[in-house]
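Q: What structure does this chain adopt?
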Amino acid sequence: MSQRALSFGTIAAAYERFRPGYPDELADLVLAYAGRPVATALEIGAGTGKATRLFARHGVAVTATDPDPNMLAELRRHVPANVTTVRAAFEELRLGETYPLVYAAAALHWTDPGERWPRMAALLEPGGVFASVGGPLRLCDPAVAEAVAEVRRPFIAEDSIPAPDGTPPDAPMLWPGSELERSEWFRDVRQEVIPRRLVLSARDYAGHLSTISAYLMLPDEQREQVLARILEVLPETVELTGDLTVHLARRIG
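A:
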C-alpha cells in the first residue's frame, strides 16, 4: 500500500468533517441489485465510516476494515452497534469467511491490482455482490475552477487520481467496471450514476481539499500556502457537482 494511501489518518477528524456522506439511493441501488436479503457485508477501506453508517442504517451488519487506526477510531464514534471493525488493509484480510456483499466507497483504487479481483471473489459468496462507488467534487463555475487550478499548479499539477487501468474519463464504462468486465470472476457488470449537487462555503471547500491525498502529501508549509491561495480566489460559497458513479457485479459461481 502506497504512502499516499496511508496519508489520511493524520486528519481523521477533518475527513469526517469535510467529506460528504452518501445518500440512501446508494444503499437502495446496491440492495436492489442484490435481489435478495443482505444480512452482512464487508467494507474495504471504510475510513471514518461514511458508507458504513449508510448500510448499517439499512439493517446490514457491516464489518468495516481499514489499515489506519486513527480512521477506525473516528469511525467508531459515529456507527451503530451492528458494525464490527477490523484494522487491516484489503491485502491483509483473512480469507475463509465469505459475505453476500463486499463494497468499497472511494477506496478501491488503493488496493493492489494484482490481487484485487481474485481476492475480492474469495471474500464473496457464490452469486454475491461487489459494489464500488466514487466520484470527485468538481467546481461548477468554469472560471472559478480555472482560477483554483492556476494557483494550485505551482504546488500540485493535478489533484485527481487517474483510473488505475488507464481507462479515459469519457469512456462508456469507467474503472473499475472496465476491469470487472475483463475479470474471470464476475458477471452482470453494471454502471449507474447517482446525481449529486452541493453548495459549500469557501472554507468548507478548502477543508475538503485538505483531506485529498494530493494535498496531504505536501509538506505542511506548502499545503497551508496552496490552501490559502485557493481561498483567496474563491467566492463566499461554491457550487459543486459530486455525481456518484456506482459499479456493481456478481460473483460467478
